[in-house]
Amino acid sequence: MTKIKDLMTADLQYCTVLDNVYEAAVKMKDANVGAIPVVDEDGETLVGIVTDRDLVLRGIAIKKPNSQKITDAMTEKPVSVEEDASVDEVLHLMASHQLRRIPVTKNKKLTGIVTLGDLSLSEQTNERAGSALSDISEGDNREEGFFH
């Protein structure tokens, strides 16, 4: 059975709780991603995730300065999975929480991120990823709330 650690992106950008929203936005731009995990000061323990949507709704749209702490814009305690999680478990979490990406951890330490795109690239998971995307998109008409 395929494990998420076999499909996740392990070489990823992340922010620490010491970063600000400007630094997060630059890292997202440079990596061409729409979300970036946030780790504790130790640089390893996952504590949050910030999306481009979070930066807009919790920062720019309410006229917060670029020096705003990343912790003020991030989603704390994000849904995450351990490296040995199954594809089915991840797809279920994505569909039930309307997520397109989920941080991957090992003993609470950030080791990667898995996206619907990662799952759609695998022949074994492509069809199931499409089904999860359909479930996510059906619930995507929310007016408020912050999701990653």
Fold and architecture overview:
The protein is built from 6 helices and 7 strands; from the N terminus they run E-H-E-E-H-H-E-E-H-E-E-H-H. With 148 residues, it is α/β, with parallel strands linked by helices. It has one domain: CBS-domain (Roll). Helix 4 runs parallel beside helix 6. It starts with 14 loop residues before the first strand and ends in a 10-residue tail after the last helix. 31% of the residues are buried. Keywords: CBS domain, Repeat.
User: What is the approximate shape?
Assistant: globular
Along the chain, the helix and strand elements come as EHEEHHEEHEEHH
Structural domain count: 1
Q: Which fold name corresponds to the CATH topology?
A: CBS-domain
**Average pLDDT across residues?**
83
The CATH superfamily title:
CBS-domain
User: Could you tell me the number of beta strands?
Assistant: 7
Domain CBS: 8-68, 74-130
InterPro entries: CBS_dom, CBS_dom_sf, Diverse_CBS-Domain
Pfam families: CBS
Region (Disordered): 127-148
Features:
CBS_dom; disordered C terminus; globular; repeat; 148 residues; CBS domain; CBS_dom_sf; CBS-domain; alpha/beta; Diverse_CBS-Domain; 4-stranded mixed sheet
List the helices and strands and how they pair.
Blueprint: E1 15-16, H1 21-31, E2 35-39, E3 46-51, H2 52-57, H3 70-73, E4 75-76, E5 81-82, H4 87-97, E6 101-106, E7 109-115, H5 116-120, H6 126-138
Parallel strand pairs: 1-2, 5-6
Antiparallel strand pairs: 2-3, 3-4, 6-7
Tell me briefly what this model is.
The protein has helices at 21-31, 52-57, 70-73, 87-97, 116-120, 126-138, and strands spanning 15-16, 35-39, 46-51, 75-76, 81-82, 101-106, 109-115.
